[in-house]
Every structure is written in structure tokens, then in C-alpha cells.
Amino acid sequence: MSLKKIKQQILAFCLRHEFRYTDGASHWTQKHVKWLQSLQPVGLYAEILTEYFLSYEKLVDQIERFDNRIEQLSLGDSDQEKVAQLTCFIGVKTLTALSIVTEIGDFNRFATAQQVASYLGVTPSENSSGEKERKGGITKAGNSHVRRLLIEATQSIAKGRVGHKSKNLKKRQNGNSPEVIAYADRAKTLLQVGLV
User: Fold this and answer.
1) CA distance 135 to 115
2) In this structure, are residues 10 and 56 in contact, taking their beta carbons and an 8 Å threshold?
3) Where are the domains of the chain?
4) Which 8-state DSSP code applies to residue 162?
5) What is the pTM of this model?
6) Which residue in 25, 103, 142, 190 could disulfide with 120, CB within 3.0 to 4.6 Å?
């Protein structure tokens, strides 16, 4: 959350001082960060931008350290296989997978996918009487932490191309059984086709 806030502050600073990034569409790529670092505001504004960047770099380094530590923890964990299997899905990296495994615990306690959906609060709400059936938005009556993680993971599915796998995803899938990889790929394709 802090990183997102400092990024917004830097972009707002650029807008206020009419620094326009025109070399690419995406912000926070290496090219964009180099462009930001090349800016030369005048006077006190240079000091402000420097402070913003110090905060940004500190947060990026901190997140990288935490990610590395989480990777180490997941390798020694008794749930290592479950974490590895979940990272086969696009948008699910080690932190998300470890959080899901920790929050849900034993997946076998759910007999059906419907029970998992109910536990997560992603089943549609219903307001029906007699023969009239009215479905609404998701109930949000379950585990909000895992639900938020899964929603964020699905947002990366919407950005991908059908049938395309990034190098990082291929690396995460390496070493898993062909059945698990095929299941993850099928889920990705079904979700992407449904989002189109």
C-alpha cells in the first residue's frame, strides 16, 4: 500500500510540474523509472523529488527482501508441494500461494468447489421468493483475505493473451506434474475466454 501511495505521489508531482512521459504507455517500467530519474526540477522541487525517490527505492528494496524471505520460507514449509502447485496459475506467486495455503489449511475439508466458493464468499447472493429467482453480486460472507488475493490474481489473467505464457510462469510451472500444469492452463484459458 505504501509503495502504491508513493508511486501516485511521484506521478502527481510530474503532472503538477508538467513533466509528461511520452516514450511508452506503461508507467513503472525500467524505461519509465530512468526517465523519472533524469528529471531536473528547479530549486526546492528537486529536493522533494529526491525524497520521493528515496522513499520509493527503500520500499522496492524492502519488498524484494520480503519476497526473498517468503521464497525461503516456502521451500522449507511442509506445504511446499501445495504452494508449488498453486504458483502454476497465472497471477499466483509464492506470497499469494503461501497465504492461500495458510488460510485454507486442509483443502480436503471441502467436498466440492461450491463449498470452497462459499468459504471464500464468492457465491452469488440470492433474494428469491416463490417461483421468482433473483441473483445478486457475490455474498462477501467468507474469508476476505483470500478472496482479495484471488481477485488480484484474476486481474492479471485479464491482461494476458490466450495461449501465451510468460517466462516467469513457465519457470514457476517447471517441476510440477503435467496434470497440474494442464489444469492451470485450462483454468487460464477458460477465464480469459469468459472475460472477452
Assistant:
1) 18
2) yes
3) 2-74, 78-195
4) T
5) 0.67
6) 142
